[in-house]
Specification:
Helix content: 25-40%
Distance between the termini: 18 Å
Length: about 90
């Protein structure tokens, strides 16, 4: 897998970001725009760096306001899962 990590802590324009909830700890949004907070302020405070992963496969399932409408369409998530497994292999290790 190829990754790119820029030097220092720079603001990134975010298309998709992934992190585990426990990685956020007690971090609070310090104002300003979300991209600056998530791609620059949080990583610097945590002493960690952002990285771009070129061959990653990602799907945006829904915004929270769209989820009620998806409840009646469970096949949407199943279709995403099937596409991901056909592309990347089994998602359960």
């Amino acid at each position: 897998m190829s990754c790119f990590c820029p030097p220092g802590y720079v603001r990134w324009s975010i298309t998709l970001i992934l992190f585990k909830g426990e990685e956020l700890g007690n971090f609070t949004h310090g104002g300003g725009d979300d991209e600056t907070q998530i791609s620059q302020v949080f990583p610097e405070a945590a002493g960690r760096h952002c990285a771009a992963v070129g061959p990653a496969l990602a799907v945006h399932y829904s915004y929270y306001t769209q989820r009620p409408g998806l409840g009646s369409q469970p096949e949407v998530l199943a279709t995403y899962t099937r596409i991901a497994e056909n592309t990347c292999g089994s998602l359960v290790g």
